[in-house]
Amino acid sequence: MYPDNPWWRLVRFGFRLLYNEMAWTYDMVSTTVSLGQWQSWQRIALDYVVPEQRVLEIAHGTANLHAEILDRGLDAVGLDLSPYMGRIARRKLGNRADLVRGSAMALPFAAESFGTVITTFPTDFFLQAETLRSVHRVLIRRGRYVIIPSATLDLNGVVPRFLEWLYAITGQREGYLPDLTEPFANEGFTARLEKHRTQNSTVWAIVAEKR
Fold first, then answer.
1. What predicted TM-score, i.e. pTM, was given to this entire model?
2. Closest Cα to residue 104, out of 78, 70, 135, 65?
3. DSSP label at 128?
4. How many whole angstroms from its chain centre is CA 208?
């Protein structure tokens, strides 16, 4: 998604730090930039879970959404490439955790293992062909790959405008959203983009069903 120039290389480096050595700041950062709405934005992904089937969360991060998945009594596995996120998630989840370190591009699970694969506010790995093929392989027929790629604050004032500016300069605004469903068709999915309005924000969801 990001062009190859000095600014975007710096943005990628910043995200790499946030997901790794600076992972301990992730909850604080996400809460701040969403004005406390981050977890409610993530939770929208759960509206699309295929009933009575296992759930895989890719890039579980600090496990806030994963804890909610488990609280709903779902059979779930979390995967993240970052060992730093893995340690934080295990501390939060305790003996409930079924977490695996690995890459979304080479999921270490058997074919047709999950009814739903979820990822929320991911980096650009979620659209890469290797990831789409890997997710397609582990989903059951008619299983769903659910992504929450973006949300906007529908508020006025200096702080919301500043936060929107931060999102824009780091490549996280929805100008690219109409094109996001295109890569799925080539990898065996039927995808749609859905908009959810909350009291103070708009949240986007991509729902891709395995054909």
1. 0.89
2. 135
3. S
4. 14
Q: Are 193 and 177 in contact (CB under 8 A)?
A: yes
Q: Which of 140, 141, 75 is nearest to 112 (CA)?
A: 140
Q: Would 1 be classed as within a structural domain?
A: no
Q: What is the DSSP letter of 50?
A: P
Q: Which residue type, as a one-letter code, is found at position 126?
A: F
Residue 76 within a domain? yes
Structure tokens at 99: 């977490």
Q: Which of 150, 133, 140, 121 is nearest to 184 (CA)?
A: 133
**Domain, as residue range, for 109:** 6-210
The answer, yes or no, to whether residue 176 has pLDDT greater than 80, is no
Output the domain CATH number for residue 174: 3.40.50.150
Question: What mean pLDDT is predicted for residues 110-114?
Answer: 98
Tell me the per-residue pLDDT of 17-36, one tens digit each, with 9 for 90 and over: 999 999 999 999 999 999 99
Output the six-digit token pair for 125: 């790995």
pLDDT at 157 over 60: yes
Each residue's pLDDT tens digit, 141-152: 999 999 999 898
Q: Is 125 exposed, middle or buried (0-12, 13-18, 19+ CB in 10 A)?
A: middle
Is the residue at 23 inside a domain?
yes
- Residue 104 inside a domain? The answer is yes
Domain count, the chain: 1
